[in-house]
Amino acid sequence: MTKHRIYSISVASVYPHYLAKAEKKGRSKAEVDEIICWLTGHSAESLDGELAQKTSFEDFFAQAPQMNPSRALITGVICGVRVENIEEPTMREIRYLDKLVDELARGKAMEKILRKSPVA
């Protein structure tokens, strides 16, 4: 089975699209970065490094410092596919990121996007 083309595309080439989608709806670069860092365990500095190196999506997720265990709580449809039903791990991670950015652009609160449970 051949790999999907998105695996070899650099995160840096798609990142401006994430920003544009969020900023068009009044959200910020800082919020996009917070989502990416929450998902992957990157710091702001290491994320900037990955973008500067033009790391591919496949390597970006394979070499992520610490994928967030709460990402399994991300559900819903992105690109016509339920993210929780995607079997291929790298594609699922990419779609998780797409879903989070989509939620940000739709105006969802950061606490909900980052799957933080309310403090009782």
Blueprint of the fold:
Blueprint: H1 11-24, H2 29-40, H3 44-52, H4 57-62, E1 77-78, E2 81-82, H5 89-105, H6 110-113
Antiparallel strand pairs: 1-2
Helix pairs in contact: 1-5, 2-5
Structure description:
The protein has 120 residues and is mainly α. The chain is built from 6 helices and 2 strands. β1 and β2 form a beta hairpin. α2 runs antiparallel to α5. The chain starts with 10 loop residues before the first helix and ends in a 7-residue tail after the last helix. 22% of the residues are buried. The model has no long low-confidence stretch (mean pLDDT 93).
Uncertain stretches of 5 or more adjacent residues = none
**What is the average of the pLDDT values?**
93
What's the helix-strand series? HHHHEEHH
Please tally the helical runs, counting DSSP H or I stretches of 4 or more residues: 6
Shape: globular
What percent of residues are in strands? under 5%
Helix content percent band: 40-55%
Question: What is the strand tally?
Answer: 2
Which structural class fits the helix and strand makeup?
Answer: mainly alpha
Largest sheet: 2 strands, antiparallel
Rg from alpha-carbon coordinates: 14 Å
Q: End-to-end distance, in Å?
A: 48 Å
**Major sheet: order of its strands?**
1-2
